[in-house]
Amino acid sequence: MSGPLDGYRVVELAEGVAGPYCAMVLGDAGAEVVKVEPPAGDRARGWGPPFQGETSAVFLSLNRNKRSVVLDLAEASGAESARRLLAAADVAVVDANRLPAPALCYEAVAALNPRLVWCQISGYGDRGPWAGRPAGELPAQLLSEATASLGRIGEEPVRLGTDVASMYAANYAVQAICAALLERERSGLGQRIDVSLFGSMLAMRSTLWVALSNPDEWWGFHLDSYVKPPDHGYRCKDGAIFFSLARMEPQRFDGLLRDLQMEWARDDPLFPLLAQDTAGGTGRNAHVVKQLWERAFAAFTTDEVAAIVERHGGITFPMNDYAQFVALPQVQHLGMVPEIEQPSVGPMRVLAPPWEFSETTAAIRRPAPRLGEHTDEVLRELAAGEARP
Amino acid sequence: MPGPLTGLRIFDLTMWMVGPWASMQLGSMGADVIHIEQPGVLWSSLGAGVPPTIDGTSIGYITWNMNKRGLFLDLKATRDRATAYELLKTCDAFLINMRPGVPDRLGLGYETVREINPRLVYCSVTGWGERGPMAERPGADTQVQYVSGFWSTNGRRGGEREVYRHFTQMDATTGNYAAQAILMALLARQRTGRGQKVEVPMIRAAAALQTARLAEYLATGELHQPLGSAAYATAPDQCFPCEDQQWLGVSVTSEDEWRSFCAAIERPELGADPRFTTNAERVRRRDELAALLEPVFRAKPQFYWMMRLTNASVPCGYPLRFEQLRNHRQAVENEYLLEVETSAWGRVWTGGPPWHFSRTPATWQGTPMPGEHTGVVLDEIERRPSAAPALRQA
């Protein structure tokens, strides 16, 4: 079975996370991706430790299903090869802030190939005073106030460990590219798209903008996310757990307290709030009464708390670290972490694509390339293609 | 002006956030998204009633159902189910986020829908997948963050791991993967002439979002220790306090940027220091390097560093808040933040389209009332031919 994007040709002129991940997603869906790298290689080849063989684990995870071509775009021959690649492509994924030679700007390339869908990934958009400023994951998180949902007010900002601004931009870029390819079926024309890290972050936080518009009252986790202290889950003897009583029948409450051996809580001045608490980190007073739950949970393991809470009709979920997540039976069952053969590394566990198609496949067809591994092969194919009438 | 998806129609049988978010993106790009609600639905229950509310309606419903038309259908009633089947014949995609088995009970399982319209792309979003030991468990944004370890790579330097308190990102991420999967399947249809089923479980989407961090774990078996504002894979890539007690975030991610950075802070000897020649060495000596840089940044105010580093093309930034952002030229001129008129809840701020298309611009429109367009939509399907052409003209 082929992939849904079988036959589409993508040229990537990008580095780091956003552009490469966008192109990889298109590759996972079946597109043929040529990654054009400068002679020094994509900067992310040096991101780490950890390294696997000579190469960054991060780079390997963002560049499978691609062929690597090294071109020095500062030199005429390199720029000319890139221009020919773009002339034969369906899609270009380009870092806006590292736009190469003038001959490779959108207008010049579109004159050669009007069907090209050109998607540039920028830091802040193609308009406004910050247009053209270089993109950065941390600046985008800070400027979009994502760090307001972590840490404590007044202290050092805490970033999201996941590169969300870059990944969100990549996912929006994939949507826009696919939409433009569908539109091309009707018009016969490509177009230029700009997707920014900053704009993607602001779009992803839009629930907050509505919440801040004109709420009936300040309540709920959307607004409380700004003012609550850091949330580490509910601590038990051996780790943390998430629990919620939102679905528990009220008459089960006494039994829950008994089994958690927390009858003492009835004498606590916070008990009236505890008795109304649905827990789960989103309740109105959840952060106030959390200390009472944690005093009780300290006597139990996460497994024991889960058994007691679920017995009374609450729900619990583990607060997993990556080791626990990868080992989950559900993750194994879905085949989410397959093993591939990575040259010069050996067997390597990777993440499968996020979607399951019934009639077409998303597949890992080739491991991440060595720098310039396919330069000759791709340029030969290009020449042969151009020679065809 | 038409959007890139003008002419496509989406049957939007979604609720809460993850499904509505996906179809809202398609609507922004011009698709005709028909959002289904039960006739007589209590407005206080929309968007699962998650607070805060505006005039008693959850801001969730208001935020996640923009760019759509509202249609009432009682899928448990024979007559409305027949109407749903008529509508499906005119649609290009069907989107549902319900637990496995529920679509079948509503007469809208994949096999049934495929019979009605074989060209339709059927997208099902679930929490944990449609099979496996967790398939029947409830799956929501909060739980997916905990289970997938998304929370486990954040936290104060040397401190405890902490949750991203603004729950919504797992839903929106999954919704975005669902929207892209629908578009991929529509592209495949151009070639095959047939639709297909696409499943997008939240657990898969959450893992995909964490591709780079999970790769680090899979490579080493070591868990991430919280680093505050610092990056795991690059250095210097963190916040520093400045003379005016304001924070400045700087991201150096290549050797060129490292040289530019050292020149901009007037410490060229750091650029030549063999301890810090490559990113890998700077990451290994992250704390040592930060200790050298802290007094540098403390000596001048934030705006001084912003100007110097920006002029040197080194990515940098500082924390902003909504009150500043909504008046900020960069957010306003790119229409990343905008005010839209809703049918029943007045004007609200929201995020605009994150894409700029040069020929077929995306737009952003306010939320309809549930069922607001019922009469119009029903009139339309009576007039429409029953076979859906490939891509209708705008």
Q: Secondary structure elements and their pairing?
A:
The complex is a heterodimer of chains A (389) and B (394).
Chain A: E1 9-13, H1 18-28, E2 32-37, E3 51-52, E4 55-56, H2 57-62, E5 66-70, H3 76-87, E6 91-95, H4 106-112, E7 117-122, H5 137-143, H6 164-187, E8 191-196, H7 197-204, H8 206-211, H9 221-224, E9 234-236, E10 239-244, H10 253-259, H11 271-276, H12 286-297, H13 302-311, E11 315-318, H14 322-326, H15 329-333, E12 339-342, E13 346-349, E14 356-357, H16 375-387
Parallel strand pairs in A: 1-2, 1-6, 2-5, 6-7, 7-8
Antiparallel strand pairs in A: 3-4, 9-10, 10-11, 12-13
Helix pairs in contact in A: 1-6, 6-7
Chain B: E1 9-13, H1 18-28, E2 32-37, E3 53-54, E4 57-58, H2 59-64, E5 69-72, H3 78-89, E6 93-96, H4 102-105, H5 110-116, E7 121-126, H6 141-148, H7 169-192, E8 197-201, H8 202-209, H9 211-220, E9 237-241, E10 247-251, H10 255-264, H11 268-272, H12 279-284, H13 286-298, H14 302-311, E11 316-317, H15 322-325, H16 329-333, E12 337-341, E13 347-351, E14 355-357, H17 374-383
Explain this structure to me?
The complex is a heterodimer of chains A (389) and B (394). With 389 residues, chain A is an alpha/beta fold. A six-stranded parallel sheet of chain A has the order 5-2-1-6-7-8, sandwiched between helices. In chain A, strands 9-10-11 form a three-stranded antiparallel sheet, covered by helices on one side. In chain A, strands 3-4 form a two-stranded antiparallel ribbon. In chain A, helix 1 packs across helix 6 and helix 6 crosses helix 7. The longest helix of chain A has 24 residues. Chain A is elongated, with a radius of gyration of 26 Å. The relative contact order of chain A is 0.13. In chain B, the strands form four sheets. Chain B has a six-stranded parallel sheet, sandwiched between helices. In chain B, strands 9-10-11 form a three-stranded antiparallel sheet, covered by helices on one side. A two-stranded antiparallel ribbon of chain B has the order 3-4. Chain B is elongated. Chain B starts with 8 loop residues before the first strand and ends in an 11-residue tail after the last helix. At the A-B interface, strand 3, helix 2, helix 5, helix 6 and strand 8 of A face strand 3, helix 2, helix 6, helix 7 and strand 8 of B.
